[in-house]
Amino acid sequence: MLQRVTEAAVRVEAEVVGAIGPGLLVLLGVAQGDGPQDADLLAEKTARLRVFADAEGRFQRSLLDTGGAALVVSQFTLLADTRKGRRPSLTEAAPPDLAAPLVQHYVEQLRARGVPVAQGRFGAHMQVSLCNDGPVTILLDSRT
């Protein structure tokens, strides 16, 4: 999930571990069966998605065009299945030993494309603060 922000930060135990100014907050969920090709596809889409306004106010500019940054926060709860009962099922989320390397691969692919990246801490209890710009929130899925 991408959120266009004017600023965002993530804290772990009151310590800021990642922060950005204008750019995209990326809440990244890794599903069972995801692989490096999914991370590559999403990194390319994230870097080049035109969700920033040009001089006429139209979505014509990307992170690369604006020099914006990305704050990547792993969020397995994006894979929650709420179709049955009242407790979300998280069986679709990849286990940590598979998800952590894919999150890091995604971060490395963003950096390889020239995007400055800050990150949360995988597996930690985090507090995320942001100022959503627009608001603009876009869901990306490598499988659709």
Describe the fold and architecture.
The protein is of the alpha/beta class. The protein has one domain (2-137): D-tyrosyl-trna(Tyr) Deacylase, Chain: A, CATH 3.50.80.10. The protein has three helices and eight strands. It has helices at 36-48, 63-66, 96-112, and strands at 2-12, 15-20, 23-28, 52-53, 59-61, 69-74, 117-119, 127-138. A hairpin with a 5-residue loop joins strand 4 and strand 5. Helix 1 (36-48) runs parallel beside helix 3. The protein starts with a strand and ends in a 6-residue tail after the last strand. The model has no long low-confidence stretch (mean pLDDT 96).
Provide a concise account of the structure shown:
This protein is α/β, with parallel strands linked by helices and 144 residues long.
What portion of residues belong to β-strands?
25-35%
- How far apart are the termini? 14 Å
Total strands: the figure is 8
The domain tally reads 1
The number of helical runs is 3
- What summary fits the major beta sheet? 6 strands, mixed
Structural class designation: alpha/beta
Topology:
Blueprint: E1 2-12, E2 15-20, E3 23-28, H1 36-48, E4 52-53, E5 59-61, H2 63-66, E6 69-74, H3 96-112, E7 117-119, E8 127-138
Parallel strand pairs: 3-6, 6-7
Antiparallel strand pairs: 1-2, 1-3, 1-8, 4-5
